[in-house]
Amino acid sequence: MGGSKRNHVIKSALQEYAEPPGEDEHICKALGSRGSNKIDVELPDGHTALVILPARFHKKIWIRKGSFVIVKAA
User: Fold this and answer.
1) DSSP string spanning 7-71?
2) How far, in Å, CA of 51 to CA of 58, rounded?
3) pLDDT tens across 1-25, in order?
4) How many CB atoms lie within 10 A of CB 11?
5) Residue 17 in contact with residue 7, Cβ under 8 Å?
6) Rounded to 5 degrees, what angle do the CA atoms 48, 25, 67 make?
7) Is 30:66 a contact under the CB 8 Å cutoff?
8) pLDDT tens for residues 31-71?
9) How far apart are the first and last CA of the chain?
């Protein structure tokens, strides 16, 4: 399977199943990692915050600098 075919399948799946963030969720940009499951993010209003990745996702999801994540307000 070629690279363009995979991209097409991924994009169609995202369009079909992706939902917009809820009321208490924000799309944030990852600024970097501070350790095992702590991530610095930039909020939509420009402020920065430290968020924690739940333990069940530790070592299963890799978030790089510049990635976008959905953050739920506590």
Assistant:
1) HHHHHHHHHHH-----TTEEEEEEEEE-SSSEEEEE-TTS-EEEEE--GGGTTT----TT-EEEE
2) 13
3) 455 677 777 777 767 777 888 899 9
4) 10
5) no
6) 55
7) yes
8) 999 988 899 999 999 999 999 998 888 888 888 999 999 99
9) 42
